User: What shape does this take?
Amino acid sequence: MRIFLDTARYKAFLVAAETRSFTKAAELLCYTPSGISQLINALEKEFNFALFYRNKKGVILTNCGEKMLPAIRALLKQEENIYQLAAELNGLQTGTVTIATYLSIATY
Assistant: This one.
């Protein structure tokens, strides 16, 4: 039996929590705001509790959302590790490269 974990809802939750906005999360994840809202609603329905307080200025994590945040962050980090391991086993090197530069140079 093969189990497939769809992490789109967790990614939507994490980015919305970090940006405090479904609209900004949608822009960053290439979804519509409605799409992000649907992903979050599905996650809330699955968990059976609200993750965000919604208002016109954006979203704020509920207490339950605050408690779920570290676990979801860890799950997504583990997913990244799995894909990196799979790439390495295929002879590819993956990872994150951080490049520091001065703002005056970076704009060009």
The beta strands are 52-55, 58-61. The chain is about 60% helix and 5% strand. The first strand starts at residue 52 and ends at 55. Residues 17 and 70 are 11 Å apart (CA to CA).
